[in-house]
Amino acid sequence: MQGLNPFGRSADAGRPAPVRHAPMRPAPQPKTATPRRDPAPSRLAYRLNRMMLRPLIRRLVRIGIPAFLAAMVVGIWLSDDTRRANLSSSIDGLVDRIQHREAFMVHSMEIHGASAVVDKGLRAMLPVDLPASSFEIDLEKLRERVLKLDAVEAVDLRILPGGVLSATVTERVPAVLWRHARGIELLDKTGHRVASATSRDVRGDLPIIAGEGADRAAAEAMALIDAAGPILPRLRGLERMGERRWDVVLDRGQRIKLPAEGALRALEHVIAMDKAQHMLDRDIAVVDLREEGRPVVQIGLDAQNAIRRARGQDQIGPDGKPIEPGTDAAGKSTTKTASRVKKT
């Protein structure tokens, strides 16, 4: 070892090197027969896990089961009659306090555009007496009831701020009188009933129509009346014949029979002929236009007797039979009249 130290000898050169003991190795453990744990889930856990992957099962577990339990608890609690009565009275009292707050109260009613009769009828149709809660007034049902009044065409119902029930009424305007077997009624331009009339003199300014079914053809009648401008002063009314056509009735007993189809055109044709030839100023009783290609004119009784006298024939009476000698056209004796004239 001396040759390894070039710088000289060391004092411990003859001392031996210390002995270092190697660490002891752990004793080998004896092998046991314990099996390793299988990381795979059990069959039940696997099936439960697969079931929870379905949305329906998840909703049932998270929502359905808690809701069922809550409903069961509430049902058990409400199974007692006393509890149910107390709960019902509490809810009714709460609703009543809310509905009868001042903000929801209706104190008065204002009606615009209505006559006195309609005003009175509308106020009588209110389902409650004022003041009342607005929740107790069904405006839609009230509107339907008001529209059942014959004189009302439209109505607008609103609850205004301040607790005012406002009703704006549009009444039907009478346009024609309808005479039928049950009396006289006022109709508007569409034929809807407005009111009843006791006599013709109640509304002498309105034209009159007559006959069954005339109300359903009131629109056509109004068009005929508007077209009868030149003969309007002589017009007495329109009569519905057989619920299918019109007769125009004029003064002096004259009558114009219009066809079922094209009545307006036929009336305009008659008015044009009268304007050109003054046909209606003559002794004509009936102008029959029911057949478009064959108009017929029936002359009056006086004109017929004048023609018969010119022909040397006997006169006829209103019944169409010849008049006996010594009587006039009305069937009255003229002999006594002549003797009385001689005595005077």
Task: Explain what the structure shows.
With 344 residues, the chain is of the alpha/beta class. It has four domains: 46-90, no CATH class; 102-171, Ubiquitin-like (UB roll), CATH 3.10.20; 177-299, Rossmann fold, CATH 3.40.50.11690; 302-335, no CATH class. Helix content is 33%, strand content 20%. It has helices at residues 43-52, 55-78, 81-99, 116-124, 139-147, 218-227, 263-277, 301-310, 335-343, and strands at 105-106, 108-112, 132-133, 152-160, 164-171, 176-180, 183-187, 193-197, 208-210, 235-241, 245-250, 255-257, 284-288, 296-299. The strands form three sheets. The chain has a nine-stranded mixed beta sheet with strand order 8-7-6-9-10-11-12-13-14. The longest helix has 24 residues, at 55-78. The termini are far apart. 13% of the residues are buried.
Explain the layout of strands and helices:
Elements lengths: L42 H10 L2 H24 L2 H19 L5 E2 L1 E5 L3 H9 L7 E2 L5 H9 L4 E9 L3 E8 L4 E5 L2 E5 L5 E5 L10 E3 L7 H10 L7 E7 L3 E6 L4 E3 L5 H15 L6 E5 L7 E4 L1 H10 L24 H9 L1
Parallel strand pairs: 2-5, 6-9, 9-10, 12-13
Antiparallel strand pairs: 1-3, 4-5, 6-7, 7-8, 10-11, 11-12, 13-14
Give the ordered list of helices and strands.
HHHEEHEHEEEEEEHEEEHEEHH
The CATH architecture assignment of the largest domain turns out to be 3-Layer(aba) Sandwich
| Oligomer description | single chain
Strand content: 15-25%
From the alpha carbons, calculate the radius of gyration and give it in angstroms: 55 Å
Helix content: 25-40%
What is the name of the CATH class of the largest domain? Alpha Beta
Q: What fold name stands as the CATH topology of the largest domain? A: Rossmann fold
Summing up helix and strand content along with how strands pair, one would put the structural category as alpha/beta
Report the strand count. Answer: 14
Spatial gap, N to C terminus: 207 Å
Q: How would you describe the shape?
A: elongated
Membrane topology: Single-pass type II membrane protein
InterPro entries: Cell_div_FtsQ/DivIB_C, FtsQ, FtsQ_C_sf, POTRA
Subcellular location: Cell inner membrane; Membrane
Region (Disordered): 1-41, 309-344
